[in-house]
Amino acid sequence: MNDYMVINARGAMSVFETYIKTTPERLWEAITDPEMRAKYSFGVRTDSDWAPGSHYKASVPGVIDIAEGENLDVDPPRRLVQSFRALWSDEVKSAGSSRVTWEIEPVGSSCRLRVTHDQLADDANSELFGGWPMILSGLKTLLETGELLDTPGSLRYSQATA
Amino acid sequence: MDGRGALAANQQLSRGLTCDQSVTYSLGMDAVFRALADSTRRSLLDELFVRDGQSLTELEERLPMTRFGVMKHLKVLEEAGLVTTQRRGREKLHYLNPVPIRLIHDRWVSKYAEPLAATISGIKRELEEEP
Question: Which domains are delineated in chain A?
Answer without folding.
Answer: 12-145 (3.30.530.20)
